[in-house]
Amino acid sequence: MNRRRRVGFQRLDDGRIAVRLPAAVRSFVAAAAERLRDVGTAPGSPGFARLFGRIDETADADDPAYVLARQLAVDEAVAAVAASTEKPVIDLEEAEAWLAVLGMTLSRRMEELGVRTEADRAGIAREDEAVIRVVYALQAGLIDALDEREPAPRRRASTARTVGVVGADGAEIDGVTVELVAGDIVRQPDVDAVVNAANAQLLPGGGVAGAIHRAAGPELAEECRPLAPISPGEAVITGGHRLANPYVIHCLGPVYGVDRPEDELLAACYRHSLELADRHGLRSVAFPAISTGAFGYPMERAAEVALGTVLKMVGRLESVRKVRFVLTDEGALQVHRAVLQHLLEQ
Amino acid sequence: MWIRLSSASVAGAGPAVAEREGAEADAAVDAPYNVVLWNDPVTLMEVVVRALKKVFGYDSEKAELLMLTAHREGKAVVWTGDRDRAVRHCLELGTYGLQSTVARAT
User: Does the model's ipTM exceed the 0.90 cut?
Assistant: First the structure.
C-alpha cells in the first residue's frame, strides 16, 4: 500500500467534479475501462484471478446469481466510465466508477506482471512503473475531490458588489441570471470559468490577462502555448490551474479603430465564449469588459455589444445558468447597469 | 455508491439481508464468517480506506486502523457476519482492486 500525490479533479460548488486532464489521460482511462469488460466473467484471466479468484474459492463460484452479481458490479463501473471519460464535469457516481476502474486496472496489471510481494513490486520495469504513477495520481485526485465536504452555499467574493437591476442579483432571463458586479475577475471563486481578455499570443501581458496569469501561475501560460495565436473574436478554453475556477476561457477582443468591424468581433468574443462554456457543460461564467482597457473600446458602446450579445444568447444556452460581468470600477458598473436596464426595457 | 447489488442478485441472500446492509451490528451470531483483507504491494492506502468506508460504512478512524493492520501484518479481518454478505463484501472490495477472502471465523 502506497502513498500518493494529487492531480486534475476539483469539486465544484454544485457538488460535481470538474475533470482537467490531457486528452491522452482521458483515453488511457477509457481504454482501461474497455479492457475490463470481461473481468467479471473470465475466470482464467489475470484480472479475474486477482480480484475475484480467491473469493470464489470460498463462494459458490459457479452459482448463476453470484456470477451475475460479479458481472453487474464490473459492468456498471465500466459503463459509467465509458460514458464519462470525455466529460469536463462528472457526477459523484461517475467518480466512484473511475476509482473502481482504476483500482481493477492496477490489480489486473499486477497479476499479469506476477507482482504479489513488496519485493516483486520493487522489481517493476520503468514503463510499468510510469503507468502505476498515472493511476495513483488519478486515484488520489479523485479521492481528494470525493472526500471534500459538500460545498457551503454560494458566497460572493468580498470585493464584489451586486447591483440590483431586476432582482438583487441582477436580471434573470430565460432561466439565466445576468449579474453585474464591481470587483476583481480573479476573485470569483463561485463560477466555473472566468474569461480572460487575452492577447493574440495568450501571454501574460497586462490588464486582465496579466492578473489572470499571475493568479493562475506559470502552468497556465504553459497550457496556452500550443493554442496561440488566436484572432480577434476567437475563444479557447484551458484549465484554471491555481485559480479557484476550474476553467479559463481566453478570447481576443478587437482593438478599437484597428480590428474591424469592432462590434461584430466583440460580439463574437462573448458568443464564442458562451458557446465554449456550454459545450463543456459549465454552469457559470464571469466576463470582464473585453476590449475596454488598452484596446480602447468605449465603455458604453462595449457594454451595449456585450450585454446585447449575452441577452440574445440566453435562450440558446443549455448548461450555462449564470453570466456575471465583473467590472473594475464604479463608473463601468453604472454604465453596464444603465445599458442592461435599457436593453431589458426594449 | 455505484455498486448496487440487490440482495436477490447474490447467491443465497434472503430478505434478511435487505434490512441494514453493511452494518457491523448485523453480524450473524451463529456460523460467522470473516472478511479477510490482504495486503498488496501496489494499492494506495487512500483507496483501501475509501473502499472500507464505502463497503462497510466505517468511519475514517476505523477504516485507517484496519488498513494499517493489513499493511503491517499482511492481512486484517475487516468484517464478521453471515457468509452471503461476507461474499458480497469481498466482491465489492474486489471492484476497488482490493483482494479479500471469506473464512470461517474460529
Answer: no
